[in-house]
Amino acid sequence: MVLRVYFISTTGRRDIRKGQIHVFSVLSSWKYDYEAVDVAAPENETERDFVIVTGKKSEDGKVVLPQIFHEGKCCGDYLDFLDAIEQEKLQLFLQTISISEGEAKDTIPC
């Protein structure tokens, strides 16, 4: 399983910074293996281009970080992540289990 969180280390927006910290905190507490990719780092230019092309866009057409990907497929952004937690469907959101397994397991404790 390859879980990647695309984030930006140079943001001045407090909401983005808090969202990134929350994503990292939840994934770490659930013991998910993930790779954090800083799209602001010059060596990650290819990764930045990838997330711009394939990431979820906001209403104004821009990619808002953090973005979560599983095996190269976009799971969603921070708001989608929050919704998954609130609906107790984090594993389904992260695509670590299938929909049929999610129905069988019922809910995920928070």
TrEMBL record:
InterPro entries: Glut_rich_SH3-bd, SH3BGR, Thioredoxin-like_sf
The protein's name: Uncharacterized protein
UniProt xrefs under Gene3D superfamilies: Glutaredoxin (3.40.30.10)
Name of a matching Pfam family: SH3BGR
Family: Belongs to the SH3BGR family.
CC annotations in GO: cytoplasm
